[in-house]
Amino acid sequence: MQQPRPAAGRDADDPDAGRLAVLLDSAFLLLLAASLSRYLTHHPGNPRIPWVIGLSTALALAQPVGSWLAHRHPPAPAPGAEAAPGAAPDGRAPRRRRWPPALVVALWVVLVLLAPSFAWCAVPLIYTALRTLPARAAIPLVAALTLLVVIAEVRLAGGADATLVLLPFAVAALATGVFLFMDRQDARQRALITDLVRTRRELAATERREGTLAERERLAMEIHDTLAQGLSSQQMLLQAAERTWDTEPTTARTHVRTAAEVAARNLAEARRFVHDLAPAELADGRPLDQALRALAGREAAESGLPVRFHLDGTPVPLPAAAQSALLRIAQGALANVREHAGASAAAITLSYLGDQAVLDIADDGRGFDPGAAGAAGGRGYGLPAMRARLRQFGGTLTVESTPGEGTVVSAAIPLEHR
């Protein structure tokens, strides 16, 4: 497959390529001057001198101009390669890029036919051809230039010689092979860099999307475990106050005050999770067992559902994020008990079992069939949110329930994740 040539669009931005072009032009002009000097020295009074001087002057002007245009305008791209800026839309090199090299070669050929001394000016021309033309065009041109060099050297020597015939072809073949090999290596390296840059951009975009989804999931869980549950409690309390407003005004006012307290607490929770702070129950370094005990007491006071707390084992310090996750799971499970279970009592048990911390929330309500309800989330957002929280710590969520026999929600977090 044809490899992409070094496009002039790249050369225009590559200072090394620009310096190489200047070096080739300088070498060409020096060889041209040396060849002209040799010709004038060895052929004084030759009638071809005006023609040789004129062609040398034209060549000295055409070569830098052609090199400059080649530096500004890219060659035709290889099939499947991206066209560089300045390339013709049909894939051919622009006309203003095609004529200078052809003019330089034509002038040099005429000059060599008149004066074989100019044969070695072909060396910079060969490298210029390799740099600016596709390989399928550059290789035949290099072969033709080398053949003309051989003819010129034989003419200068006055006879054929194996060295004069083979050496130029050997040098040209070696130079062409090395150049094309390095060119292909450069093309592969550029392609690899392009792939790496594209992969890096795609990875950054993926990370941004994942970060957005993770933050969205965090907010959804926090809203579910704080605002949604708080609004549900307020609704229940206000409905109870409405039912007893005329018959038991004292009880109704108590429900309203409790609803106001729930609203104030939810407002504080909302502010805390917006700022990504720990739940209020865990503020000031309060241990998890005390926060769960307080949660049980508050739930009993607000809903009238007896909730007891039990600690099993010796407490082990957990990361703040893990404590927050277990507390939110307890809040969500109690909200499910309050809204769906129809239970007469519930219990929270925090157990430290050596290799893991286990939080159990049990109730004696109506229960359900975890398989039929879709333990993966059939009962709403609560259970999926709990599982999502536990996955961050390598934990698991287990739901055990039977219709008519209550429910146990068990959350376990390995202690090695401390």
List keywords for this structure.
12 helices, five-stranded mixed beta sheet, single chain, 418 residues, disordered N terminus, alpha+beta, 5 strands, rod-shaped, Heat Shock Protein 90
Any overview of this molecule?
- With 418 residues, the chain is α+β, with helices and mostly antiparallel strands.
- Among the domains are: 8-160, no CATH class; 290-418, 2-Layer Sandwich (Heat Shock Protein 90).
- Helices cover 65% and strands 8% of the residues.
- The chain is built from twelve helices and five strands.
- The protein has helices at 8-13, 15-42, 49-72, 95-114, 122-132, 135-157, 162-243, 249-274, 288-303, 320-341, 370-373, 382-391, and strands spanning 307-312, 346-352, 356-363, 396-401, 407-414.
- The chain has a five-stranded mixed β-sheet.
- Strand 2 and strand 3 form a beta hairpin.
- The radius of gyration is 43 Å and the shape is rod-shaped.
- The model is unreliable at 1-12, 74-96 and 374-379 (pLDDT under 50).
Brief digest:
By secondary structure, the chain is an alpha+beta fold.
Question: What is the chain-wise order of helices and strands?
Answer: HHHHHHHHHEHEEHHEE
Strand content: 5-15%
- Rg from Cα: 43 Å
Looking across the biggest beta sheet, what order are the strands in? 1-2-3-5-4
How many DSSP-defined strands? 5
Mean pLDDT: 77
Taken from the alpha-carbon principal axes, the silhouette is rod-shaped
From the N-terminal CA to the C-terminal CA, the straight-line distance is 56 Å
The chain-level structural class is alpha+beta
Q: Share of helix among residues?
A: 55-70%
Number of helical regions: 12
Q: How many strands, which pairing sense, and closed or not: the largest β-sheet?
A: 5 strands, mixed
Low-confidence stretches: 1-12, 74-96, 374-379
